[in-house]
Write a structure and sequence with these properties.
Largest sheet: 9 strands, antiparallel
Radius of gyration: 17 Å
Order of helices and strands: EEEEEEEEEEEEEEE
Low-confidence stretches: 146-196
Number of helices: 0
Strand order of the largest sheet: 7-2-1-10-11-14-15-12-13
Number of strands: 15
Mean pLDDT: 76
Structural class: mainly beta
């Protein structure tokens, strides 16, 4: 088997009101894909889908010739309007929660899994994203920023398993998911404490 490219779905919003504007001035749902590798990735044979088994109506094929540089990101607008531009998907996101997958199309036509996330239910101007430098994801409001605060993620038994750094609004509760020492951890609360 060929090793899949080091891509991930790094952010998604099904309630975009003011977070990210498309090239036409609108605020559709969006999905951001990041290249976590050290070399550029040709996106010509990469698909973004609601499921690895999605039919054509729920699959976005990245434009031919699009190259994502190392550490680079690209945003796909999920507005079910492919005529709005080359980075507009033929589907929308469900604010009640959504599964998303990145897939590579092999020369045989087979789809190879790269990365998947389950986006939990969100509210207006909330986004689900990977916390930088971690394997944790969190749902954040538009006003939240990811600098200068610290937090410890706890599993259901109250055991701390990861420390992340971010800025949170007073009284804001974060939900995160990730792995503790290779063991899956259910949704856990990220308790925030002031940083340096």
């Amino acid at each position: 088997l060929t090793t899949p490219p080091p891509l991930e779905i790094s952010e998604a919003s099904a309630g975009n009101i003011t977070l990210r504007r498309d090239e036409l001035g609108g605020y559709p749902d969006y999905i951001t894909v990041r290249n976590n590798g050290t070399v550029p990735v040709n996106m010509s044979n990469i698909l973004l889908a609601k499921s690895p088994l999605s039919d054509r109506s729920e699959v976005f094929a990245f434009p031919s010739g699009l190259v994502l540089p190392a550490g680079g990101e690209t945003t796909v607008f999920a507005d079910n309007n492919i005529n709005d531009g080359p980075l507009h998907a033929p589907f929308t996101l469900d604010a009640g929660g959504e599964d998303l997958s990145l897939l590579a199309v092999r020369p045989s036509g087979a789809r190879q899994w790269i990365h998947s996330i389950t986006v939990p239910p969100g509210t207006e101007d909330s986004r689900y994203l990977r916390l930088p430098g971690t394997n944790l994801h969190a749902t954040l409001t538009a006003a939240a920023d990811l600098t200068n605060w610290s937090g410890v993620a706890y599993d259901g038994a109250g055991t701390g398993y990861a420390t992340v750094h971010f800025l949170a609004l007073a009284g804001f509760t974060y939900q995160v998911e990730g792995d503790a020492a290779g063991q899956p951890v259910a949704w856990a609360l990220l308790q925030t404490i002031p940083g340096d």
